[in-house]
């Protein structure tokens, strides 16, 4: 009896590790399915055989809660938004960012559809920098694609999650955005079946949370 | 018996033809663009006529789909299926008399070949066999030999004769070549601009000076029917015809068998007295039945003897100097060697 | 070689082959029918069919996937009909991946077949009909075999597209390991996580090798057909 | 009508047309050259070219986009060469979107042209050469015009693909409104937000309408060519 | 002058032929598969021979690409470019003597038409014009008329004659039809299985009993050259030939102009005494120069008078009964109307 977890693609490595924890602790087996949050939400609403859904986005989480028979939902992790660079080193004053970029570009995820893009736009707006940077912003399909532009030297800076840096040693944090400049970054677990409850329990357990930490995620805001 | 009555208008051509096709071969003859192919396509159901009445015995097939008509059609281009072997092509429409057809058309050695590897004459024989093996009630042959050159044409001709002699269905044979027509057809329908202008038995039409303008001066010439009397050691055959006994180059027919000989008008020489010491073996006493002047330097002379007719074409000058006149008795001289083998057929 | 790919990747490879194969095989008859209708038909709505066939090419793959989800999902009208009539479920099954691949490859297949059909001499079809072959038999025994180069080209394009299809598939049937996670989906998800590139490129090489084999076989078949056609 | 789409959507529409048009136009000569080499050439590496041409079909679009980024990005070797030689920059420009569309449509275009080339009677090319035409002139005056149906089909397929291309485009040049945000990218973005479906489908209808116009024009051209060819 | 020396091996056929082509028409004659097309393709550069030496005057063109050879090639199928008008087709290779070529071939009314709308004869005339307008140094004509039926062939023939008379380049003319060959060609090269078996002036080869097996009994017949003496009112033309004066059906040549007449052997009747009261206008005293028996019932008789030669084919029986022998004086009888217009040409 497999437990099926539908998860946002950005959780791939972390969920992989939680899977091992789950299988070791319960003896059951787990099948993770990764796709974009939008695809995951829509498919589950159309009856995809998921026991649990892990979304990287509050909006799709509430959309799914309204469009499917969700038994329970809770936030299981958070993340920090950071400015990332490959060569330019630490940026002491975020207000110098437009100058630092010069005639280069700033890589982001899509600001209307991808959560990381939305958070980044909000943070820059809060800092009063968005109007200056909007023409320089290139919007990738997801965070990973945005950071690839930075990695390749196509973009001077990029905005992504702290968790993304774990697997990308060549990239460094140039600036950490204050959590108050953008909506809280939350990862949501929605339980659809009793079997799913067991997985969420493991996810919230000490071992589960430490696996998430290994991959750079922070504990959910309501947890210490 | 096939009865055809068609009416169809193309943007700048109108077809309006009615004629009957009894068992045996009926030739459709006429200049390019006179509507021969259109008629054949209409009979096959490939051309949707404005008005088509095609009766085959009691059946009216004029409104059937082509595949329901039981018609064998041999196209000018063989139209063999390139992805099948010769044998597969042959069997496409059926396997009627398979062994006989293959033997009749000499196809044994070709069966496993592909159409692309065949010469034009071979391809046309296969097309013929394919149509025959479907067991059709009517055969339509649209210039089946015209894409072939002389020697290849000569290869296929005997097969067509054998076919005519061995089956009893109506066949329409389109051709521009009077040699073919005279050798194969029993009847001829001459078309001009979509209409039938002359029709009748080949012997009558070809010996009729009135039909000459439609047939062409060079192609004019009587067709004699006769009977083989016997074969001589020196390769000549004696044939008894209405007009008298003729020696022709040896043919295959057995003694007593029927034979047809086309005598082109321009190969006949006339003499007032019986000539002597000539290399021409055939000298026949005949009576002049008619004289018709043409546009050129020639005069067409209709000759008669024993109820049969012959046509001769002589210069106007000779006609004058010899004082040729209707009712006069003259001698017609025919060379045996001038009677081409393709103008003799054993029926 | 077994070390080179993990078991999950072997599974994805096998699944991709299955999906692309069945997508190609099952869509060929429909592709031929559509190409035939477009090449020969004079019916009204010919243009409409033509446009319909090209839709999957014109729309972003995600839209096609979304429409498939609406129509063939578990609760979609067509999905319910297929389940009731044939017991065939597409939603979140490999069959759905094959459906998505087939739909996405359809315009390519139809165009290729149609170019071949347009080049067939209608005289051969006429000849077959005078030999007593009904329209259906002419189609089966003359038209179809002569359209072979186009069918082959169409099958290759369909198969290649089936190997590469991503957007419509993941949107329609998601990315379920062993069920709908084809090579293309594996590659794509690997490219979405940091550090996934090396394995992704290795998988891409596998796809390419398979497509190369398919291409070489199809070229050999086509040239054999040409040689046979000539003599 | 102006109310029906917002200014951002009008911009995306215009950009899509520009991208698909230039992608098709610029890839046609290369498509013809590749098809000609595949159809006539006997050179070694013909199979390799064949495989290369088909790659964008076989690989997931994201991989193609990724490879384009590696090659034609600002720091990629080809990107640097093009910038140095022609002053042509692809990275994050509409030109890059056109390049991605051209590459993705290339296999479709080449197949279509090749089927037409294979159907040309070599006797006509021989005749032209005896009339003193060099190989190049034969190509230009005989082969090319006779391959017209395939060129037309190839152009339509390329254009349609250009309208629909998403994965390679966004990976290579990202989604920059007014610069690289084509209709397909707009549609995709809209589908990623809850409630974006109605506008997304409206944009999809616009794509379809454009493709329909292109198809109808191409069919008309093709049938005119057929009528002229017959008499 | 074109000098050809070729050697090439196909899997089961070897070509090994060397011959010269002077200005004027040289016919290539031989059975199907004897290598005629292969030679022509090799001269044009379309067939890459193992060993090809093709000299045109001082130039060796044997290794040039086809488009560098300045060769006009008329294919059996016209191979017109379907996407161009007739005029565009004509101008494809050049615009040499444009107005003359169009007038010569009677193409004025066709210029704006498309090839698909042309009849076979029209298409072949356009192909001829297209080759001519490129201003070639050599013309190659591969059965240019064989796809046409009789009347259409007759349409094109005068254009070929006019072409021959008005240009001074070497031309190779492939044909199975001896009427065409005799009418058009000055020289003939007979091929058999890839090798040249007989070659020479048409007059000599066709009147040579030894060449008969290669040419075929039916096609054998001498070619006489003569000079027009004058035209009579009744449509006949008097021609002075080596063998004597002949009356032939009216031809266009002006008085004093040269003329060629083919006299098929089977149309000649021999008589020991001068016959009288015959409709045949031409009776010529000749001497028997040779007798050759064939396989059939015929004997080929070579006749001579005034240095010219004639062939007659008579039955063995006639030869015996007339006691024909070499050296004997006899009369040859020729019908004026049997001399077909296509066997007379004004050169
Ligand atoms: N589909 C068509 N549309 C318009 N006109 C046509 C069509 N088919 C035939 N015709 C016309 O009908 C006439 C007769 O054509 P048809 O092919 O029957 O002649 P034919 O006697 O077979 O000539 P040929 O000896 O050249 O084969 C021609 O003038 C031709 O232009
Ligand atoms: N490309 C080829 N490959 C193999 N054999 C060939 C090729 N071309 C010609 N041949 C062979 O060469 C021989 C001569 O062919 P060719 O076409 O020259 O004959 P031809 O005299 O023109 O005959 P026809 O009168 O039928 O046109 C044939 O036996 C043919 O099989
Ligand atoms: O961009 Mo595509 O064409 O996903 O398969
Ligand atoms: Mg006809
Ligand atoms: Mg030949």
From TrEMBL, chains B, E:
Q: Name one GO molecular function term.
A: ABC-type transporter activity
What the entry lists under InterPro entries is as follows: AAA+_ATPase, ABC_transporter-like_ATP-bd, ABC_transporter-like_CS, Mo/tungstate-bd_C_term_dom, ModC_ABC_ATP-bd, Molybdenum_import_ModC, Mop_domain, P-loop_NTPase
Q: What is its EC number?
A: 3.6.3.25
Transmembrane residue ranges? none
Looking at the record's lineage, which domain of life comes first? Bacteria
- Is Translocase given among the entry's keywords? yes
- Enzyme class, top EC level, equals hydrolase
Q: What are the ABC transporter domain coordinates in residue numbering? A: 1-218
| Any GO CC annotation of this UniProt entry | membrane
Query: Any idea where the Mop domain is?
Result: 277-343
UniProtKB keywords: ATP-binding, Cell inner membrane, Cell membrane, Hydrolase, Membrane, Molybdenum, Nucleotide-binding, Translocase, Transport
Q: Which NCBIfam families match?
A: modC_ABC
Supply the name of the protein.
Answer: Sulfate/thiosulfate import ATP-binding protein CysA
Q: Name the gene.
A: cysA
TrEMBL record, chains C, D:
Which SUPFAM superfamilies does the entry mention? MetI-like (SSF161098)
Q: Name one GO molecular function term.
A: molybdate ion transmembrane transporter activity
Query: What Gene3D superfamilies does its record include?
Result: MetI-like
Give the UniProt family note. Belongs to the binding-protein-dependent transport system permease family. CysTW subfamily.
Segments traversing the membrane: 20-39, 51-72, 84-106, 142-160, 199-222
- Whether Cell membrane counts among this entry's keywords is yes
Question: What is the protein's name according to its record?
Answer: Molybdenum transport system permease
Which UniProt key words apply to this protein?
Answer: Cell inner membrane, Cell membrane, Membrane, Molybdenum, Transmembrane, Transmembrane helix, Transport
Q: What does this protein do?
A: Part of the binding-protein-dependent transport system for molybdenum; probably responsible for the translocation of the substrate across the membrane.
Q: Which InterPro entries match?
A: MetI-like, MetI-like_sf, ModB_ABC
Q: Which Gene Ontology CC terms are recorded? A: plasma membrane
Record's subcellular location: Cell inner membrane; Cell membrane
Q: Where is the ABC transmembrane type-1 domain?
A: 13-218
Lineage, opening ranks: Bacteria, Pseudomonadati, Pseudomonadota, Alphaproteobacteria, Rhodobacterales
Q: What CDD domains does the database record attribute to this sequence?
A: TM_PBP2
The domain of life for this entry's organism is: Bacteria
Keyword Cell inner membrane assigned to the entry: answer is: yes
Membrane topology per record: Multi-pass membrane protein
């Amino acid at each position: 009896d497999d437990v099926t977890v539908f998860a946002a693609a950005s959780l791939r490595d972390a969920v992989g590790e939680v899977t091992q924890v789950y299988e070791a602790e319960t003896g059951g087996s787990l099948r993770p399915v990764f796709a974009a949050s939008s695809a995951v939400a829509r498919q589950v609403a159309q009856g995809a055989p998921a026991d649990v859904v892990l979304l990287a986005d509050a909006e799709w989480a509430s959309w799914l809660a309204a469009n499917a028979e969700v038994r329970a939902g809770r936030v299981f992790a958070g993340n920090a938004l950071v400015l990332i660079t490959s060569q330019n080193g630490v940026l002491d004053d975020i207000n110098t960012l437009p100058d630092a970029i010069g005639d280069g570009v700033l890589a982001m995820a899509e600001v209307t559809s991808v959560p990381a893009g939305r958070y980044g736009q909000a943070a820059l707006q809060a800092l009063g920098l968005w109007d200056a940077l909007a023409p320089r912003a290139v919007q990738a399909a997801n965070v990973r694609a945005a950071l690839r532009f930075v990695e390749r030297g196509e973009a001077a800076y990029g905005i992504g999650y702290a968790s993304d840096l774990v697997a990308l040693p060549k990239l460094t944090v140039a600036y950490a955005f204050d959590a108050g400049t953008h909506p809280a970054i939350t990862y949501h677990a929605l339980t659809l079946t009793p079997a799913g409850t067991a997985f969420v329990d493991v996810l919230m357990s000490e071992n589960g949370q430490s696996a998430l930490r290994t991959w750079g995620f922070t504990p959910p805001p309501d947890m210490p | 018996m096939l009865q055809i009555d068609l009416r169809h208008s193309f943007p700048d051509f109108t077809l309006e033809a009615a004629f009957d096709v009894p068992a045996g071969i009926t030739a459709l003859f006429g200049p390019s663009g006179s509507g021969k192919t259109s008629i054949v396509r209409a009979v096959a159901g490939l051309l949707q006529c404005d008005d088509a009445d095609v009766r085959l015995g009691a059946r009216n097939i004029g409104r059937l789909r082509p595949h329901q008509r039981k018609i064998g059609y041999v196209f000018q281009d063989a139209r063999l299926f390139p992805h099948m072997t010769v044998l597969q092509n042959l069997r496409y429409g059926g396997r009627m008399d398979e062994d006989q057809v293959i033997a009749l058309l000499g196809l044994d050695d070709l069966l496993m070949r592909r159409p692309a590897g065949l010469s034009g004459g071979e391809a046309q024989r296969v097309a013929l066999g394919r149509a025959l093996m479907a067991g059709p009630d009517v055969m339509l042959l649209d210039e089946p030999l015209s894409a072939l050159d002389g020697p290849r044409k000569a290869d296929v001709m005997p097969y067509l004769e054998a076919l005519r002699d061995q089956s009893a269905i109506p066949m329409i044979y389109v051709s521009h070549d009077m040699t073919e027509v005279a050798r194969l057809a029993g009847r001829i329908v001459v078309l001009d601009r979509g209409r039938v202008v002359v029709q009748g038995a080949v012997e009558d039409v070809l010996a009729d000076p009135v039909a000459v303008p439609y047939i062409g001066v060079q192609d004019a010439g009587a067709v004699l029917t006769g009977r083989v009397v016997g074969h001589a050691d020196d390769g000549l055959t004696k044939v008894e015809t209405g007009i008298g006994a003729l020696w022709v180059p040896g043919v295959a027919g057995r003694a007593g068998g029927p034979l047809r000989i086309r005598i082109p008008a321009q190969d006949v020489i006339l003499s007032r007295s019986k000539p002597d010491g000539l290399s021409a073996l055939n000298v026949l006493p005949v009576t002049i039945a008619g004289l018709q002047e043409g546009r050129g330097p020639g005069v067409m002379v209709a000759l008669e003897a024993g109820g049969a007719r012959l046509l001769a074409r002589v210069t106007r000058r000779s006609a004058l100097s010899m004082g040729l006149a209707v009712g006069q008795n003259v001698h017609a001289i025919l060379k045996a060697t001038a009677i081409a083998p393709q103008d003799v057929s054993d029926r | 070689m077994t070390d080179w790919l993990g078991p999950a990747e072997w599974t994805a490879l096998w699944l991709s082959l299955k999906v692309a194969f069945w997508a190609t095989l099952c869509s060929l008859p429909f592709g031929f029918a559509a190409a035939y209708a477009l090449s020969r038909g004079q019916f009204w709505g010919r243009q409409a069919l033509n446009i319909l066939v090209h839709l999957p090419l014109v729309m972003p793959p995600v839209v096609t996937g979304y429409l498939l989800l609406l129509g063939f999902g578990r609760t979609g009208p067509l999905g319910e009909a297929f389940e009731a009539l044939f017991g065939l479920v597409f939603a979140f099954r490999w069959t759905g991946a094959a459906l998505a691949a087939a739909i996405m490859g359809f315009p390519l297949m139809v165009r290729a077949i149609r170019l071949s059909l347009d080049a067939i001499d209608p005289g051969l079809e006429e000849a077959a009909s005078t030999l007593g072959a009904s329209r259906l038999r002419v189609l089966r025994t003359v038209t179809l075999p002569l359209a072979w180069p186009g069918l082959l080209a169409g099958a290759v394009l369909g198969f290649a597209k089936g190997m590469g299809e991503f957007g419509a598939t993941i949107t329609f049937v998601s990315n379920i390991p062993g069920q709908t996670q084809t090579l293309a989906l594996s590659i794509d998800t690997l490219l979405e996580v940091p550090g996934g590139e090396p394995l992704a490129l290795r998988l891409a090489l596998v796809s390419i090798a398979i497509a190369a084999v398919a291409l070489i076989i199809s070229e050999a078949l086509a040239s054999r057909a040409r040689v046979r056609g000539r003599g």
